[in-house]
Protein 1
Amino acid sequence: MPARARIIPFAFLMLSCTGEPAAPEVPAVPAAPVTITAELPGTRTAFGPKEGDAWPNRWSEGDAISINGIASDQLGPEQDGASKAYFTVSGIQAPYKAGYPSTAFSNYSDGSATVRIAPEQTYVPGSYDPAAFVMTATANGDNIGFTPAVALFRLTVDCDPSVRIRSVRLGSTNSNVAVSGTFTTDFRTLKPTGGYRNYVTVSSQEGIPGGAPITFAIAPCDFSISGLQLEVIFSDGTRLARSATPSKAYKAGMMYTTSVKPVEPARIRVAYYNILRPEKRTQDALLLTNEVTYNALGRSILATGADLIGFGELDPGALPGGFADLSVVASQAGYTWKLDWPNDISRSYHWGWNYSATCAYSNGFAYNPSVLRLEDSGYVWLQKNGTDTYSSARSAYEKAGSPERTVVWARFTHILSGAGFWFFVTHLPTASQGGGENMAGGVNAFTAEKAGDAPSILAGDMNSADSDVDGSNNVPIRILLQQWTDTYDSAAKAGGLGDCGTYDGTLSGSSESYYYTWKTFTKNRPDRRIDHIMTRGELEATSYTTVRTTFSYGGKVWCPSDHLPVVATIVIN
């Protein structure tokens, strides 16, 4: 008949409640006996109410331990919540090597075993996944005192309880840091094997309520060298990422607590504004002084309230140092400007003469440096008779064809959220000029190669309307829409259309529009929009509008350009 040992295990658990790894605090030590039987199906050992500076560990119905490779029976309901319990095990002899939970231990041999800390853990309200909370003990007699072999990391996502969290991943940036997976143990310490992981994930199919503590069981490890990373995935698919570098290694038997407060998804206000060149105005418009026109233009730019503005048809006078230098407006608004792409210098550098059309159709952008950080920028020329692009002025002169068009590009970081995105600005030719279809294909090819799947924004005067009305020149825009989403459509779905849904939209192309009068300027319909802001990737437009500013001169009401600024609010997910 196998011997039956009556063993009293003690579960020691020291848990700190500070946000930074804290000094060990006095554990609540269970002191009464417990009963041990055969096998554990994976139920839990739970937290009791906090006692002073520590959370006591309590046994639960269904708990079982392993001694010398033999699993015990499950605890009955009468011992649920006890700090001590009695387990009965058959066929064992001292010395005892014990582990909890029994299902985590395997391959016992000569005082050592394999133990597994689950990389994928299930959320348990107010506690941890019992299958991952590993405790070990050694004893020569019937009284066994367990100590945790894992550390606990408790995270609170500080948001409304109505917000649901699908999963949270805690990991190291260093692949050599063993956080979970398979280890060997002598029932005193853990040693990682080839089956370890540098992360652990806690998830819930029902969703974890915002504000509820989420507890990870992890192997003792050192995040202080390479840092740790947290990724929270909410039920709606949005993600929150945080990183930190603790000041010391995480130890077994300790709980480390922290909280994160989600920042609202990055929202930026993006505008596109085609600024007509002075030399293209009618004789009536030429009566306006440059000072009056550009002051009005500056006020129109500021009225967009945009964090990022793409420009089209910048003439040399608007460039820094020109007679109507828009950088003056920049200093008033706090913008940083990138307007001179391409400029006459691009051509005169090679041939010693200026090519004015280059500036006449140049693009640029302005941004608010308190909101966005510019990481990199540049431009390329588009090809009229193909989809190639050229970064050199000589190649563009020899191969691009006329009319010359460019794509200006920039890579930004949203400072508050850390979210990154790409911004592209272009200006496609009219139907009569030709080449719009090829250049649209060139825009798609270049932006896809440059940005890949990263969140991207494309703004520009496409001289193309997604409409079947006569003169819409709809092919170029429909080529672009194969890869891009029109913010007008996204905002319409979100109920965020502004004045463009009530007043007429923007469309140049007739001599009448060059008079800049309010009536003439707004005569066109929204379905004939040729100025566009489009998105690709993890971006969503929640609002879309045009901004109308006018000024009076010579007894008439004027608009600063033959285009209205188009403005969209875009959320970076």
Note: The longest helix spans residues 436-451.
Protein 2
Amino acid sequence: MNSRYTTKKVLGTVGVFLLAVLVVPAAAGADKTTKPAPAPPPAKAAPPPARPAPQPAVRPAPTPAPQPRGNPVTPTGGGGVQRPTGITGTGGPKQPTGGITGTGGVKQPIRDPGPTPGKKTSAPPPPIPDRGKTSVTTRQPPPVYHPPVGVKQTALPGGGSKYLNSRTNTRVTTDSGGHVSSLNKPGLDASHFRADGRPGTIVRTLPGGRTMKVNRPLVGERRVEVVRPGGVRVVTVGRRGFVERPFRPGYISRTYVVGGRTEVRVYRRYTYGPVTYYNYVPRAYYQPAFYGWAAGPWAMPASYAWGWGGASWYGFYGGYFGPEAAYPSASLWLTDYLLAENLRQSYEDRQSAGEQLPPQDGQGAALTPEVKQAIADEVSRELADERAAAAQPMGVTPPQTTANAPPPALKQHIFIVSTSLDLTPADGGPACAVTAGDIIERTGRGMTQDGKIAINVLNSKSGDCQADTASTIELATLQDMQNQYREQLAAGTDKLAKSQGQGLPSGPPAGNPRQLAEGQAPPDADAQTLVTQQNQDADRTESEIKQSLGTGQ
């Protein structure tokens, strides 16, 4: 009995064991299959429809207007501010081969390979996602030409056509798709047509043998130029413009007309190889000590309220530009002043050109702290030059000769674009535009045979040439950009002098500006009339071209 009992007990134990081995895993499996699974992470869910590349999380375009933001700065024990490493003021901005490089929406400077002994360094700013092709606006083709009855058509190589209207003596050429390429009639040539039917280039012969040249860039305002008898040149950009006259040997004056107001500036004529250019002559200087204070760092960073919060341009470009939260120097304060002035002008130009602007330009990559600091370094160097000139007893002493004098633009590396320009990329890509507020870098010093200088785009707004676009521009145009930079800097310095102790640190008294006889000229009494008349002539010419093509009245 005991053995039978023992055998049953052993068999029962074995059965229980086998049951546990077989049933428990099954139960566990059943539990796994029946227990509700946790919600899968978003990455595992069914992919949603294709969505655009994410924008930088730290650069959203705020509504209704952006708040001030600052560069990454780290207070030091001595009360100063540590600047991000990258482009520094010593030795000038680095060249693309070993300095500012990168791809995508913004050109990122290469940082120093290691910290300088005894110098603190800050962490690099967060990377900005690649914008890819989003920064370039897709260009629509010109309108298709529909010839009137009786117009003679001739086939051209490549599939295009040439049309001759013998009644009006008008010739129109089209590409293989029938889109307008050019229009020619006696005294009028138009080419590079845009999608709205307006030509990018017009050359018209006016009474008296004068020539009117019209250029309409891919983005921004129309530019019109006419040279009148006596060397008088009238240039309009949108509804503003200037009248240029020689007024003493080697000098010209320009009376600028903006919003019904006039302002006179003086330039000296120079030559450099085959290029003739004009260099801005200051009207006045402050005390040298004031420029020295403005060119150096402040003892403590200062906050400043610019008052742009309600401005339309500021909200529109909020994703591209924002003022610093605190300024460690006047040069960085002046940098924001310069950027703001050019962005405001860009916005007004685009509005005046009839562009339908969205509430915000959310696609542009924000200006990096490194690029802004590079501009500030240029400002510091210019202020040092102004200090040296102001210290001279008679102000600026003109050189003995104006022949073969290198333009000041060849000393400057970083430029804020001050007007719309079309660029032809060096890689053979389609033409694109840079507009006021974009940033370019001069990458070459030697001129091409046609008087151009190599440049590279550092930072650009949505729809403009992408960052890292290499191209060339005329040296005279680059010098004009440098002139406008100095003129705007002079206005910013005036504002700085008046703002001492009013939100900004107090420095040496600026004193009353010392007027320079070399920079003075009388205004042109007819400037307002000539600018208005020229714009009306250009309007009539564009209207005539539209009528000839049947694309407008």
Note: Confidence is low (pLDDT under 50) at residues 1-136.
Protein 3
Amino acid sequence: METRSYFHQASQEPLLYATIPDFLEQRATEIPDSEAYVFRHPPLEDVPGPERSSICFRELEERSAHLAAAFLELGFEPGDRVAAMGPFCKEWVIMDYALLKIKVAAIRVSRELTTQSSLKAILEKHTCRSLILHPGHKESFAQSLEQGSPGFLKKDPKVCPDNVRFVVSMTGSTSLDLTCIHQMMASEVRGDTLERVRKIQASICPDDLATIYMSSGSTGAPKAIPCSHFSLVNNTFHTVAPALGGLQTGVSRYFIDRLPHWIATFPFTTVVCGISMVQVDPRYTCNAFGKYNDFLFRVMREENITCAMMMPYLMYDIVGGIEKSGMTLPDQLTHVMTGGERLPIDIVRSTLKYVPNIAMIYGTSEVGLAMVAEIDPRKRDEDILEGYVCRHFEFKVVNEQGETVERGTHGELLIRGPSAFSGYLDDPQRTSEAFAAGRWFRTSDYAAMSQAGKVKILARKSDVISYLTSKIFPQQYEKLLVEHENVAKAVVVGVPDERMYEIPCACVVTANGEDIPEEELHDYFRRLLLDTDSISLAPKYFFFVDAFPEVNGKINRRKIRQLAAQKFGSSRGNMGVQDTI
């Protein structure tokens, strides 16, 4: 029996050697009139367009082929890179598949997180020949870009990188006179150009570059992560589909409220599995704090949702809508997938009352979805998020010397698998640092493997607090804090200290908006924690905040560490300072 922390999830299900456009053609033939994507928004006066729009597989195939030809006639060439910024909408989806057909890679850039200077840096570093953007409501985003750098969208060489030849708007005829996807889709294209699209698509190899994601930047500067057709297809088929309970072609309907620059949106699940994806903009979920609950519940019922991606904030809203307002979910909603952030156990148990199957997923932008914890309410809280390795993946846990540790011992988690990336785009130094010998990807996460080969993620390596002779895993303290009746959310970080390395600091969002007396929290920890080597490991600092800063839908621990260091770093021993973020 294997005693070292290594596990390979072998599978009799073979890997698929196909491209995303191959699957789109197949679905357009098999289920042409089945909806591929559905877009919903609440009835608001300032939101233009219908409350519901959709595109079926046949229309998606035909319109993406037409737009691909229009891109070629505009001047795009196979092998080009473009930066794309925008929400999930019909224009984005058609653009996405059009670029895939002609071997043009889209760098999916977050519109919310990108500054003028960082956008220019991306365009320059990755030699993008085009910027494709959604102008925003009433052209607000396009106007803000142009006002911040006059001439930028008009390709003025004084402010726009020389390599950018085209700036394309997804919708409308903007006041900035940009080339528009709407117009391109309505224009005539030559027959020989359409034939060229078919030839380029036929030449695509599954190992070719498909699209490029940007890491969230929650642990440092964002990195560009290239994904091949092979990696996206197999991660969808072998990991996403099983996590959602097994998807039925032409039947399953998948709800999601994330944006297309986030890899865990799994946008190509529609064509790979032949299902419908129902999308709601996060303006009406994570940024709305339950304001649009009536709308969300109505969408789930009207669209006959069978499975969903729900981040913790959405679980809170769903449970609140049911228990406080008597709202109901559709009976056919049987599987929920969640991830991207540590999951509060109490909200998991509450959601399980209304959805029978919840899967906590683990992965990285670099390897995709790699582990799934199927939540079993009978397990103890400390074991409930222990997960199994997904098909075809290998996991191992190593110490600081790179040696594989015995099972039950914590260390850094390394991953190898078919959907792992080959390296960061245009960044050989970071690529070299990302891999250990044997092409094992370093996750920078602390984990422990059980005797049965299941894995529990303990903390980000950068989140672990080195306090004197001890290693403190923040998740343990955060769990204790949220069990306090007056604590709604908690994040524990380390404040740098010359003498003690780092001092634990608890950042707290209170349940009633009022600060908790610090002595009460000190007493609370004294009752619950045992001292190690006569040293109290309880948090020394408490930082009361109204809300935690986020990046890409995740709590931005890096920013919280910076704020805590600014507050307490120069005043060791000051235990009475309180403030808000």
Note: The chain is about 30% helix and 25% strand.
Protein 4
Amino acid sequence: MHDDRLRITLTRMMHTLNDRGLSRRDALKVAGTAAVASGIAGGAAMAFPGGLSRSSAQAASNTLVFGSGQDMSNLDPHTGHDYSIAWGQRALYDSVLRYEGNPGVLQPLIASEVTGNADGSVWTIKIDERATFQDGSKVDAAAVQWNFNRLLTKNLGVAYMFSPVMDANSAQVTDPQTLTVTLLSPFAPFDLVLPWLFVANPAVVEANAGSDGGETYLRSTGAGGGPYTLSRVEPNSLYQFDRNPTYWYANPNVTTPIQTFVWRIIRESSTKRIAMEAGEVQWGDTMTVEDVTALSSDPRFVVNSAPALEPFSIKLNNKAGPTSDVNVRKALAALFDYESAMSLLQGRGAVLNGPLATSFTPWYDETLVPIRYDVAAAKTFLAQSAYPQGDFELEYAYVTGISIEEQFGLLLLSAAAGLNITITPNPILWPDFVARAATAETAPAMAAVYAGTNYVDPDNYLYASYHSSQAGSWSAASHYSNPQVDDLLVQARTTTDPTQRKALYDQVQQILVADQAELWIYNEVANEAWVKELSGDMVQSVMGGDLRGIQYQVVP
């Protein structure tokens, strides 16, 4: 770790020296002298994960080191779930279906075919005869049934997508390669959530069940049939995945799949950028606009330009403290300077008018009238609240190292001070925020959160964040509860008629905006960059990434 920090420091020093007019040759001399003074031989090679060169941004030996600010805290396929965890789960496990592209399109994986009846209540899943686990045993309908039931029993992670419409009797084996799923009630997007049923090997899990049904074992050990095995685990530092040489599935669009994948925790954007420039990292996420702009001028890198479906909002605690007052929430909305926020993004995002991205047609309700920056209106709203004089403090929690979240908080801090409201920014690690979101009493008053796209349907955003049954998850950290919204959301997910669904979701959006459940800020163009040797399905609209669609190719 000392060498790692020093290497970054030296690279940063070289940038500074070059900026001051020194030639690259002279800058190297100065940096070399500093290295010797620090106890590192000037000509000695430094070791990086995957054996990467520090002098080039190109990936060596077909190794991809991904620099991310977020840990893979729980790889259990049925209890862990977030952006970084999804990357690891997809590497270790096959799912029933998979997404490809942006926007995401369903593709076969374990299932060669999935069909539903007219009202979306009964689904037939055909298992691909070729599918195997990493120990060579066959993936059959009984194994998929076992995974459905473990997910429902644990009732964690992605279970919320399945548990409202399934129980232990829903999935039944029709024949060795066919599963029939009879839902408790119709669920229109059921096939869209099947990419989140990761299939573990029942024999391996049961052999390592321990006292918690395998949760401890699976947290940091793979037991699936995916394209990679887990060879190195250093929590809060790095995770290494090595290619499974007997993997059964071949993507026809990928000729040279990644052989070694390293997830390396780097929280600061500038450190990520410098590591990329030094050849230590081949892909960096959640960088600042300034850092991706700098990388865009370097021909060794590709900067993402594709908009995502990841609405960013500031969650407001609807159950505890001053933000439980709707007029306080409206006052905060009127204090947020959207124009300045968009300037900070420098064109890499579009403002939101409500919980859905304005580009998410036809589902976004174009008639929404949101509250916009208006200090006079903010004073009026506050006067109508239980706190007419202000005189209260709100914690603003944001993820450590994500500077744009911090900057949004500072915008609010400055504006709120004029109304005698104190906003206290608090950088927090993502797993710590997830834990605090579990109850209204521990959830922050305000929290910066990007909504993950698990499936391309309005149910993904609206049910997960605003149905009262979801309160306590990170996506529902606002602890919003409205019986009318609950009823509309259930109606919308149980009808297959698109016109009826649109009308129901429009009503939900209108109520949420009237209740000012959160501060909806923008839909992002993800600030990510990668080396030009990587190509394929680089940025998906669905949360996380899938190495099955990414390849390494030498570029002249």
Note: The first strand starts at residue 63 and ends at 68.
